Amino acid sequence: MPLAKAVANRRELEGASALACGGGSERRTRAMARRAAAVRGYRGLRLWAAAALLGCLLGAAAEPASDDATDGPPQRYSPDWASLDSRPLPEWFDAAKVGVFLHWGVFSVPAWGSEWFWWSWKGESRPEYERFVRERFPPGTTYADFAHSFTALDFRPDDWARLFEQAGARYVVLTTKHHEGFTNWGSSVSWNWNSVDTGPHRDLVGDLGDALRKRNISYGLYHSLFEWFNPLYLQDKNNHFKTQQFVEEKTLPELYELVLRYKPDLIWSDGEWEAPDTYWNSTSFLAWLYNDSPVKDTVVVNDRWGINCSCHHGGYYNCQDKYKPGTLPNHKWEMCSSIDKHSWGYRSSMQIEDLLETSSIIRELVETVSYGGNYLLNVGPTKEGVIVPIFQERLMALGAWLGINGEAIYETKPWKTQKENASESVWYTSKGTTVYAIFLTWPEESVLKLASPEPTLSAQVTMLGFSSPLKWQKFHEKGMAIILPSLSPLQLPMQNAWTLKLVGVS
Fold this sequence. Notes:
It is found in: Lysosome. It contains 14 helices and 15 strands.
């Protein structure tokens, strides 16, 4: 682009943003545009200025610390992975440990197969999906027709928030847009394919966020970078991702809008796997997020920002669905799991054997936290906005267990040993000098033998949920044999796993 035209374009965008913000914010928006032009060139400038404009309209753009800051040094984080990956992870995320994941969208209407219903039906043309639609819906039904039945009539965000609080969740991640492209807020770039223009006719993202923040539960927003059948995306794909029309007109405007409007604590990115991060402009967006967004100091992001980014770049790693590292990673990570083992979205055809038992949920949680991860447990609400009773029961059971054993989960760190001598039944966490041994099977003769902790003469052992100290004796040269309470199973504080608190061990 010739220099004169580039300067003219920049001035035009600066002026438009400043006009929208009002004279008092003119210096701010022009400074943002200058920084964008220096780092990203005109294409990045256009997106950056659009973000500034949207921020002004929403009253959410970040003010600089002073007038001097507008002409100060360059951004702290530059749009490259070496710089972005150096950002410390906000402490709240590691402390939280437990979250609830929600997959909710138009796919909740057919409620069959999985949340990938549209792709299975039209992308893969699987005959069982063709038959399902033919037998249950009028002739000529399209996927878009399902949106009218996505009513959310029974969606009570305060009830959801109370349930998640009772489940022990410290953060909740809602699907704002899955690969189908339907947005659960009134997206400015998803006309007539969003929850305000059709279906529920309400801002689902905003309503849930308001309810969660009343209870001090952190709010995460899942967002799919790509859309299966969006013509702009398919055009870019056919061009081998050398063009970015879909990114510029859909993906990035949505991300900026979500951040500026809802100020999320976490962005859970997905749908990145077909294109490199350079196509998605991921590093440019994250540089803005970390430097100038209204959540720049607190927001957390995952690792799904382009081909080969997973498990390599991002605030924390979730690598792949239901990821289990098997050893202690050297980077913060998250394991996302689903109560329905075969789907993330609600399925009306699910059977009881398709669901994780409470004992399995607690086992996954304990193993994950022992290896330094967070545990994000998914449920799929119905099209009406109901979290079905069996999902509620599992969440409440998890919360009951955490009500007694949460001290060994929240705000803990991995110990020097994660599990007892390669056993799958005893796992460790720590908090300062205190060590927690969580055992999943009650031992024979009510004596738990631990080889890893080395007790001092003043070592003390208690069981969470049980008031009296427990007796112990040396086990071999360094370990401990702990005498558990002589109680019937019905008298035990919990039935799925138990925690010993060890003080005075090395």
